[in-house]
Input
Amino acid sequence: MYLTNNVVEATNQSEIFAQLEHLQKELALCEKALAEYLETKRIAFPRFYFVSSVDLLDVLSNGNEPELVTRHLAKLFDSMAKLEFKPNTNIASSMIAKDGEVVKFDKECNCTGAVESWLGRLEATMRSTVRYYLADSIVSYEHKPRELWIQEYPAQCALGGSQIWWTTEVNAAFARLEDGFENALKDYHRKQVNQLNTLISLLIGNMSRGDRQKIMTICTIDVHCRDVVGKLIQMRVDSAQAFQWQSQLRHRWDNELEDCFCNICDAQFRYWYEYLGNTPRYEDNFETLIHISFM
Output
């Protein structure tokens, strides 16, 4: 029960204003202290800068409950949406993308301790996992048919490995061209068309939604790679040092450093291994993809 139910009468008292001013100053001090505390957490784990203060408070308050924190993963990572934990533990064994792709970690991630610490370990595990599968895909590429090889790896690693081998094979074709094999690029272009047709035939059959998305994405990139080689042939490019080839985005794997690099002209960037999930690269529909693949 209130002594006075009228707001005007209740607040129109001499001592009320001074009390409200005092409360406002105390509230400002609390907000300042909270902002400074959140800033220390954001400095410790910079991805916290991408979430609101309300979400960050929720993350920090549930730091000892990783399964509750995972509802914010999509705001912290580009494609990671969930984690799979070993039964009755806080040990993460796999990551799940927004699109549903499940990727088993190359090593388990311990999600205990300060939330910014185990999220940092999760970030490192994510990158080491993508790097592990990418490196393995490059080694195994020539050991089995490409259409089978693609299905054994996460979409990002299959696409990345395919791009690396495309760069390698085009450079090899240029080397053969310089050695006197006049049809080296044309032979490789025919190989590209055959590989593309094989993948298209897979799409006509029955497969899961995730596998279909992965194959369609690789087909889309394969079409671009085929067209690049076709233009090189049309323009009679005969050297890997020609601008028409150097101006293309090329991925390569450095065996000594065991690392992937992206090159274009005289620029070089290290691949960062951020998990991207099984997402499309272009908004092409299936009919259009079939049409352009057989052109």
User: Anything to note?
Assistant: Residues 47-139 form a domain with the Split barrel-like fold (CATH 3.20.180.20).
